[in-house]
Amino acid sequence: MTNRIGNKDIAQQRSKSEKARVKASNIANEAVKKAIAKEKYRNAVKRQPASQD
Cα separation of 31 and 12, whole Å? Predict the structure, then answer.
C-alpha cells in the first residue's frame, strides 16, 4: 500500500520527471540483476544443481 496525504496517494503527487527518473533507475537495476544472473548460470550444466560457491 502507498502512504496517503489526506485522501490522495503519495504516488499521485510525483512529477513526470521524478516518475521517469524512478522508471529509468528501476530498468537499470533490473539490467544489472539480469547480467549477474546470466553470468552466474552461463556455463551451468542443465538438470544439475548449481555448484555451491
Answer: 27
6: left (phi > 0), else alpha (psi -120 to 50), else beta?
A: left
Name the residue type at position 17. Answer: S
CA distances to 2, 19, 27, 51 from 7, in Å: 12, 20, 30, 51
Grid cell listed for 2:
502507498
pTM higher than 0.85: no
Residue with C-alpha cell 529509468?
24
User: Average pLDDT of 8-14?
Assistant: 67
DSSP letter assigned to residue 6:
T
List, in order, residues 6 or more apart from 49 with CB less than 8 Å away. Answer: none
